[in-house]
Amino acid sequence: MSTTNETMTIREMCDAFGVTARTLRFYEAKELLFPIREGQKRLFTHRDRGRLKLILRGKRFGFSLEEIRQLLDLYNMGDAQLTQLERTLEVAQDRLRDMEKQRDELNVAIEELKEQMGWGEQMVTSLKQEKKAAE
Q1: Domain tally for the chain?
Q2: What does the alpha-carbon distance between residue 124 and residue 50 come to, in Å, rounded to a whole number?
């Protein structure tokens, strides 16, 4: 950890969250993170660490960076995060429906592929038997 418990360097953030410095700079450019700048040095606060954790979780769930940014921006609404939580739930419900639909479509495709592979295996076996009988 850095010299203070309040901030972390870019390297410490990379190590702690398993991301690259380029990723952190990208999120900074997209106004998702707001590190303290001291010359060329970036110092990330506890708030930045929390935001990065939420960004990474959102990305893992398939949220767009714009959706994540909008949700993070709702944090300071002054309503004890009610608006942020309500909107997060709406976005999450939509995403869950999309993921379940994708899963169902993938399950159908998997079954179709298994059927085709079974047919292919039967054909290979049949052709091998015909070839052997012809010899």
Answers
A1: 2
A2: 56
